[in-house]
């Protein structure tokens, strides 16, 4: 598993990034293009599995970008509707079944007689 962390800065309309602890770096005209470039650079070093990435702006002119390669199936993610990669491939425990849906009880409309008065009295 490879984790690549980049510090990104904008200067003169161009975004540049340097790896926090390593030699990878790149520059592009937009943050989107920079992210794509950095993922490709990280894949050139380590192509052992799935790719996850996270881009977080720190200020309007700086950001942190992290690329994780071969991290498993994202098992720490909570709240998704899909099983992790390991469970889908048969490499883990089966996902728990959803509890049965509760029956909806129909509420009876109360008539004016039940309240002891009428709207049109």
Descriptive notes:
The protein is an alpha+beta fold and 121 residues long. It is 19% helix and 31% strand. The protein has three helices and five strands, in the order βββαββαα. β1 (2-11) and β2 form a beta hairpin. The longest helix has 15 residues, at 31-45.
What would the keywords be for this entry?
19% helix, alpha+beta, 5-stranded antiparallel sheet, 121 residues
Order of helices and strands: EEEHEEHH
Q: Radius of gyration, Cα only, in angstroms? A: 27 Å
Report strand %.
25-35%
Please estimate the helix content.
10-25%
Major beta-sheet overview: 5 strands, antiparallel
Structural class by SSE content: alpha+beta
Mean pLDDT: 76
Per the principal axes of the C-alpha atoms, what is the gross shape? elongated
For the largest beta sheet, what order do the strands appear in spatially? 3-2-1-5-4
Distance between the termini: 78 Å
Identify low-pLDDT runs.
77-92
How many distinct beta strands? 5
Count of individual helical segments: 3
